[in-house]
Amino acid sequence: MDRAILYDMVFKLRKEGLKQVKIAELLSISQARVSQILKKTVRDIPKWGGHLQSRLTPSEQKQLVAYLEMGAEAFGFEGSVWNSKRVQWLIKEKFNVSYHVHYIPCILRKIGYSRQKPKVVDYRQDESKVAHYLATTLPSLKKKR
């Protein structure tokens, strides 16, 4: 029997309220196979991700960009760095809209921001020695083409 037809029959029988054991008997397949088909196929399940309308209007998104450009210090935070928790607080405070903290980076990407990681620099290094190394030693180590 064709797989697509089998899957359709299993789902139709299940929708009618038949138990897996009865479906297996009617279609002459094992109960385990019926269970696999029902688990594998995700028909009649609404697709939630990716199509939800934003709770922030386009004008609110523009206003959020303006707030972010003002810097975190303008809103009472120490340091000018925005993180997800701070942006979550800002959106809740200014627009009365709440998002999960894990969704904040998605919102920031939509409005044109990207994740930034500070460059790690050893506080003990001498900048003049680093500049001398970059100017003299490093070029001689690079491959000549």
What is the alpha-carbon Rg in Å? 29 Å
Helix/strand structural class: mainly alpha
Helicity range = 40-55%
Helix count equals 7
- Extract low-pLDDT stretches: none
How far the N terminus sits from the C terminus, by CA atoms, comes to 63 Å
Q: Regarding quaternary structure, how should these chains be classified? A: single chain
Q: How much is the average pLDDT?
A: 87
Share in β-strands:
under 5%
Basic shape: elongated
Report the biggest beta sheet as strand number plus sense, adding barrel if it closes.
Answer: none
The number of distinct β-strands equals 0
Order of helices and strands: HHHHHHH
Q: What order do the helices and strands come in, and which of them pair?
A:
Blueprint: H1 3-15, H2 20-27, H3 31-40, H4 58-70, H5 84-95, H6 104-110, H7 127-141
Overview of the molecule:
With 145 residues, the protein is mostly helical. Among the domains are: 3-40; 58-110, no CATH class. The chain has 7 helices and no strands. It has helices spanning 3-15, 20-27, 31-40, 58-70, 84-95, 104-110, 127-141. It is elongated, with a radius of gyration of 29 Å. It starts with a helix and ends with a helix. InterPro entries: Homeodomain-like_sf, Lambda_DNA-bd_dom_sf, Winged_HTH_dom. One of its GO terms (molecular function) is DNA binding. Residues 79-133 form the Winged helix-turn helix domain.
Write a brief caption for the model.
With 145 residues, this protein is an all-alpha fold.
